[in-house]
Amino acid sequence: MDLTVIWAFIIAFAVFAYVVMDGFDLGIGILFPTFEVGRERDRAMNSIAPVWDGNETWLVLGGGGLFAAFPLAYAVVLPATYPLIIAMLLGLVFRGVAFEYRWRDPAHRRFWDAAFSGGSLVAAMAQGMTLGALLQGIDVVDRAYAGSWFDWLTPYTLLCGLGTVAGYALLGSTWLIWKLDGEGQAHARKLALRAALATIALMGAVSLYNITLNSEYAARWLSAPEIYFVAPVPVLTGIIALSMIGAIRKERNSKPFWLALALFFFGMAGLGVTMWPYVVPPGLTIWDAAAPERSQIFMLVGVAITMPLIIGYTAWAYWVFRGKVGDEGYH
To answer: So where are the chain's domains?
Structure first.
């Protein structure tokens, strides 16, 4: 365990925190067209109103941490995925503006609802495709990106994008199960079951596709003795998936959401097993791309101060706005 490994886990934690926190409000945006205009849409947006912008703090920490701790990886990944990154940022901007303006400009609420939903869908799809582009490998020559403008556009990246959209829809619908009651909760439960089945199917498809991407990925999962160490990941993922479907059908309140988070955790653990120790497969390891040791130590001091603050105010916000959401907000 050295500083580079510690920073790899810090970045992984920030990315996971962003995915599960901003994932459920992006998921609500993705599902927004399925909600009835008026009360149902208003209650869905009220459920994330106090936390949606704070959730995106983790995206800043993850992206900024990658730039600071692994500058070479940052310099390679961004040129390889510029169209996707631009699309993601524009999607986040549109949904953020729409979130505020739909309340202040009711005459054009239909337009702002479309911007909120479309921005959420584009951001989620772009994030999934960026992950797919990273996993399928990036051409690096002389420590610089050597591919073309559209190397990121493949059937595999599209599959990863669809999986991310389905996963975020699952997080969003299970969040609404927890936060709503009555007809809104019943509708969210139906959506959650469909999203769960789609997420599980797409996770399975992406996992099988991963094995065909290169021989090293296949060796990690299928050859001995590695298979004995990694086998618990798919086994536990399957158990959690079945438990989540059961919790949705048995009309549990918060349990489906926590199980959806656990499903994402083991999905990310599987990605970690697949990629380790590369930060940019197939050629750059975390040590190849790491910043100098002095820089890592300096930044680690800053993270040791700021990360507990971020976790603290995030936990406080969720605690203050706990409970169900009614027509007038939280109660």
So the answer is: 12-330
Can you list the pairs that 236-245 forms with residues at least 24 positions away whose Cβ atoms lie under 8 Å?
236/266, 237/203, 237/263, 237/266, 237/267, 237/270, 240/266, 241/196, 241/200, 244/174, 244/196, 245/193, 245/196, 245/197
The residues that bridge with 144 in the sheet, in sequence order, are: 141
Q: Name beta bridge partners: 140.
A: 145
C-alpha span between 126 and 30 (Å, rounded): 13
Helix or strand or coil: residue 236?
helix
Determine the distance from the C-alpha atom of residue 89 to the mean position of all C-alpha atoms in its chain, rounded to a whole number: 14
> Of 10, 17, 9, which Cα lies nearest the Cα of 315?
17
How would DSSP label each residue in 143-193? TEE-S-TTTT-SHHHHHHHHHHHHHHHHHHHHHHHHH--HHHHHHHHHHHH
Mean pLDDT by 10 residues, the chain (331 residues): 87 89 90 88 86 81 84 88 92 88 85 92 94 88 82 92 95 93 89 95 91 82 82 91 93 91 92 86 86 89 89 88 70 48
Distance CA 30, CA 12 (A): 25
CA distance 164 to 202: 9
Beta bridge partners of 285: 278
If we measure between CA atoms, which residue out of 211, 192, 80 comes closest to residue 138?
80
| Per-residue model confidence (pLDDT) at position 329 | 55
Residues 6+ apart with CB under 8 A from 205: 159, 163
